[in-house]
C-alpha cells in the first residue's frame, strides 16, 4: 500500500516533462470547487444563514415507518404518526444555518494550446451540515448532513463533471424531542411511548453523476442523476426501499423502481453592479422517484394503517427552488429565494412545504499550491 | 426623542469640517473591539476537534427554586472522549463612524456592534448533538488611535440540550427538557490596550443588574435581589459576576502566511462561591461560602494565519465544559481547529480631506 502513493508521485513527477509545452499546477488543497455547487440547491455545499418564512406546510407531527422489532419488545409497527404537544415555533419562521465547504484535494491542472485547456482533475469532498432552528434561533428542529466524495473534472472552464458517492442523513433536534406528545420522559421508551428517538432519514451512500456546462460566461446548465446500489449500507425510510435491495425490501414494488433522484437546473449571472460582483439568478429542480410510493391518506397525511403501494401512474415528487443572489465582495453574498417541495429538514420527508428565505452566504476560496509551472 | 436624534445628526454633520477625514460604514465585519482569541465563547466562524482529557459529560444537573439540584447520569455510549465543534459567529459593526485628524488619538471610531456566536457541540462523528450554545453581545464599541478599544453593552448566554442528551437518558429518568443555563442579559464593560504592535492586553467585567437581567439560571447562582424566595441567604456583595482578562502576542514568523498568535484568557466566575456539593461530593442545598475562591477557567491558543481569511489553531482549555449546560462539569481539553475570519465592509461615505 505504501508503494502505491510513492509510485503515483514518481509517475506524476516523471511525466511532468511530457508537458514541456504545457503548464502544470498541483494544488494540495483548494476551497474553490471544480464542479461548482448548485446555487439554488437546498443541500448546496457552503456556508450560509437564511431566515425562512414557511408559507405552507409547517410540520405539526412526526411520522416514522417500520420500527425494528427490538425497539419495543416483540411488537412491530409498520408506521406511526406522533403528534406534537405544542407548535415547533410560535411563528412559522425557521433559521437555516448551513455549514459546509468543498475540499478539492490534490488538484492537477494542465494547460496547453487547445480549446480544451485547462483540464483539471481532483479528489473532491463536498460536505455540509444544515441546522434548522426555530424562529428564535434557539431550539433546533433538526440537523441534516449531506456530503459528496468522489472525483471532479473540469475542462476548458466550460464543462465539468462529478462522479462519486452522495450521502444524506437527518437527525431530530431538541425542538422535536421536547414536543413529542405523551412523551413526558425524553429519551425513555416504554410501552406507552413508542417514539423512536434515533429514527432518521438516511441514504448512505447513493451514487451521483453530475454534468455541468457553461455555454457562455453568464449561463450554466446542469443535471445530476443519483441512484442507489443494491448493497447500500443504510437506507430509511423503509417504505421507499425497492424490492432488490440487500436491506429488508418492499417486495410488492416493481423491479424498475429504484428511489432515484434526478436534479437539474440553470444559473444566470451578470455583474449588474460591477463594484460588488455578480448578480445571480438560479433555478433548481429535484425529482424524487419516491413520489410513486403511496402512503398518505386523502388529506395528504401519512396513514399508519395503510400498506405502502407503488403507483405506476403517479408522478415523481418534485421540488422547485429559485434563488436571487448579489455578491458584495469576493466572499460574501446576500440572497433570497423561494422553495416548494420538502421541508428544509429531511426528517420531514413526508411534509410538503413552501417557504421564502432571505440570508447571506460566505464563500471563501483559498488554495494551498504545491507546484505551479507556467510555460 | 426625534429631536435629540436630529440634533445629534446636525452636530455630527456640522463638526465634520473640524476633522481631516470622516468615514461612515453602514456595515463592517472587522470588530473595533476585537474578539478574545482564547475565549471559548468568542464570536467567530470555525471548526474544531476537542479531545477531553478529563470531564467528558456524564450527567445532567438541574436545579429547582427551593431544593438542592438533581443530577441524572447519562448512559455512556461515547467511547472516544472527543467533541466535534462548529462555531458560527461574526461581528456586525453597524453605522461605524471614523474620524481622522492630526493627533496621536487619531483615528477615533465608534459603532453599534453585535457580536454573536452559535456553538454546536457534537460527538466525534458529528452525528449526535450534545447541545448548542448561543452567546451574543450588543452595545457600543469604540477604538482610539488603533491602540485602545472599549465595549459597553449587554451580554447574553444561553444553552440548549441536544439529541445526544435526550437519547442517553435511562428509561425512567426525568429531566426538564426546557431547562437551560441562561444569563439574559448581563451588563458588560471591557477595555483593551495594544501598547505596542503585536501585544494586546484586555480585561472585562460582567455583572447582573436589576432591571436589565431578564432571566437567569441556574437558580442557585442567582443573587438575593433576583429571586428573594430562593437565595436570601446570599450576601449583598454576591452578584454572579464574571471577570475575564488576557493577553495576546502576534508576530509574522512566517511572513508568507500571516501572523502567528499566542493568546491566553482567564475567566473568573463568582459563582464558584456557591457550594452545592458537600465534602464527599454529594449534592446539598446551595450555600454561599465566603472563603471559597471564584471559579477559574484558563484558555491558551496558538494560531497561525494561512492567508487573509483562514487560521489554523491549537489550544488547551481548563475550566468549564464547552457547553454552558454542563456548567457543573470541570473539563480540560485539547483543541485543534481552524477559523475563518471575514472582514468585509459596506461604506456609505468616505471623505479623506487633507488640511
Characterization of this structure:
The complex is a heterodimer of chains A (375) and B (355). Chain A is mostly beta strands. Helices cover 5% and strands 50% of the residues of chain A. Chain A starts with a helix and ends with a strand. Mean pLDDT of chain A is 87; it is low at 69-75 and 183-192. Chain B has one domain: monomeric porin ompg (Porin), CATH 2.40.160.40. In chain B, the strands form three sheets. Chain B has a twelve-stranded antiparallel barrel with strand order 2-5-6-7-8-9-10-12-13-16-17-18. In chain B, strands 3-4 form a two-stranded antiparallel sheet. A two-stranded antiparallel sheet of chain B has the order 14-15. In chain B, a hairpin with a 7-residue loop joins strand 3 and strand 4 (70-73). In chain B, 38% of the residues are buried. Classes of the chains: A mainly beta (375), B mainly beta (355).
Amino acid at each position: 500500500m505504501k508503494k502505491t502513493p510513492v509510485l503515483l508521485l514518481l509517475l506524476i513527477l516523471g511525466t511532468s516533462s511530457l508537458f514541456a509545452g504545457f503548464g502544470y499546477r498541483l494544488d494540495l488543497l483548494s476551497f474553490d470547487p471544480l464542479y461548482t455547487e448548485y446555487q439554488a440547491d437546498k443541500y448546496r455545499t457552503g456556508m450560509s444563514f437564511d431566515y425562512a418564512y414557511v408559507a405552507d406546510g409547517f410540520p405539526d407531527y412526526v411520522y416514522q415507518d417500520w420500527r425494528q422489532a427490538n425497539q419495543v419488545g416483540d411488537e412491530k409497527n409498520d408506521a406511526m404518526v406522533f403528534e406534537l404537544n405544542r407548535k415547533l415555533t410560535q411563528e412559522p419562521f425557521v433559521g437555516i444555518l448551513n455549514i459546509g465547504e468543498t475540499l478539492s484535494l490534490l488538484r492537477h491542472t494542465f494547460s496547453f494550446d487547445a480549446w480544451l485547456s485547462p483540464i483539471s482533475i481532483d479528489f473532491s469532498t463536498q460536505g455540509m451540515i444544515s441546522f434548522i432552528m426555530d424562529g428564535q434561533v434557539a431550539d433546533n428542529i433538526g440537523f441534516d448532513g449531506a456530503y459528496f466524495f468522489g472525483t471532479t473534472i473540469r475542462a476548458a472552464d466550460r464543462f465539468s463533471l462529478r462522479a462519486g458517492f452522495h450521502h444524506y442523513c437527518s437527525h431530530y433536534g431538541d425542538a422535536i424531542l421536547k414536543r413529542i406528545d405523551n412523551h413526558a420522559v425524553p429519551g425513555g421508551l416504554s410501552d406507552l411511548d413508542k417514539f423512536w428517538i434515533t429514527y432518521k432519514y438516511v441514504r448512505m451512500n447513493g451514487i451521483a453523476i453530475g454534468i455541468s456546462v457553461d455555454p457562455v460566461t453568464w449561463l450554466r446548465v446542469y443535471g445530476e442523476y443519483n441512484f442507489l446500489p443494491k448493497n447500500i449500507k443504510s437506507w430509511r425510510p423503509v417504505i421507499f426501499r425497492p424490492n432488490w435491495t440487500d436491506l429488508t425490501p418492499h417486495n410488492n414494488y416493481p423491479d424498475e423502481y429504484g428511489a432515484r433522484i434526478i436534479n437539474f437546473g440553470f444559473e444566470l449571472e451578470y455583474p449588474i453592479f460591477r463594484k460588488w460582483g455578480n448578480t445571480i439568478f438560479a433555478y433548481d429542480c429535484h425529482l424524487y422517484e419516491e413520489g410513486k410510493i403511496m402512503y398518505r391518506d386523502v388529506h395528504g397525511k401519512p396513514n399508519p394503517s395503510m400498506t405502502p403501494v407503488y403507483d405506476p401512474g403517479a408522478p415523481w415528487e418534485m421540488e422547485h427552488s429559485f434563488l436571487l443572489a448579489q455578491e458584495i465582495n469576493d466572499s460574501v453574498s446576500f440572497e433570497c429565494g423561494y422553495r416548494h417541495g420538502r421541508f428544509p429538514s429531511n426528517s420531514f420527508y413526508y411534509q410538503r412545504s413552501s417557504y421564502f428565505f432571505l440570508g447571506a452566504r460566505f464563500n471563501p476560496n483559498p488554495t494551498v499550491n504545491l507546484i505551479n509551472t507556467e510555460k | 426623542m426625534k429631536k435629540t436624534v436630529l440634533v445629534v445628526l446636525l452636530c455630527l454633520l456640522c463638526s465634520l469640517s473640524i476633522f481631516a477625514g470622516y468615514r461612515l460604514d453602514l456595515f463592517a465585519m472587522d470588530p473595533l473591539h476585537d474578539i478574545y482569541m482564547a475565549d471559548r465563547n468568542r464570536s467567530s466562524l470555525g471548526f474544531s476537534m476537542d479531545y477531553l482529557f478529563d470531564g467528558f459529560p456524564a450527567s445532567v444537573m438541574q436545579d429547582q427554586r427551593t431544593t438542592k439540584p438533581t443530577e441524572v447520569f447519562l448512559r455512556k455510549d461515547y467511547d472516544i472522549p472527543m467533541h466535534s465543534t462548529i462555531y458560527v459567529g461574526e461581528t456586525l459593526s453597524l453605522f461605524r463612524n471614523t474620524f481622522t485628524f492630526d493627533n496621536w488619538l487619531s483615528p477615533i471610531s465608534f459603532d453599534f456592534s453585535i457580536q454573536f456566536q452559535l456553538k454546536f457541540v457534537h460527538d466525534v462523528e458529528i452525528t449526535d448533538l450534545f447541545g448548542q450554545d448561543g452567546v451574543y453581545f450588543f452595545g457600543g464599541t469604540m477604538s482610539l488611535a488603533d491602540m485602545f478599544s472599549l465595549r459597553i453593552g449587554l451580554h447574553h448566554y444561553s444553552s440548549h440540550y441536544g439529541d445526544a442528551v435526550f437519547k442517553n437518558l435511562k428509561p425512567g429518568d426525568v429531566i426538564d427538557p426546557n431547562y437551560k443555563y441562561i444569563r439574559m442579559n448581563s451588563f458588560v464593560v471591557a477595555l483593551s490596550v495594544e501598547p505596542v504592535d503585536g501585544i494586546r492586553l484586555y480585561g472585562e467585567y460582567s455583572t447582573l443588574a436589576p432591571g436589565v437581567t431578564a432571566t437567569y439560571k441556574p437558580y442557585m447562582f442567582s443573587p438575593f435581589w433576583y429571586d428573594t424566595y430562593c437565595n436570601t441567604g446570599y450576601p449583598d456583595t454576591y452578584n454572579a459576576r464574571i471577570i475575564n482578562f488576557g493577553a495576546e502576542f502576534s508576530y509574522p514568523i512566517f511572513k508568507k502566511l500571516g501572523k502567528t498568535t499566542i493568546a491566553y484568557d482567564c475567566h473568573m466566575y463568582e459563582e464558584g462561591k456557591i457550594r452545592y456539593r458537600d465534602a464527599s461530593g454529594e449534592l446539598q442545598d446551595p450555600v454561599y461560602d465566603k472563603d471559597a475562591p471564584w471559579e477559574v477557567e484558563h484558555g491558551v491558543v496558538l494560531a497561525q494565519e494561512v492567508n487573509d481569511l483562514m487560521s489554523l489553531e491549537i489550544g488547551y482549555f481548563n475550566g468549564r465544559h464547552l457547553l454552558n449546560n454542563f456548567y457543573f462539569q470541570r473539563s480540560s481539553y485539547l483543541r485543534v481547529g481552524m477559523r475563518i475570519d471575514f472582514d468585509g465592509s459596506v461604506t456609505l461615505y468616505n471623505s479623506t480631506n487633507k488640511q
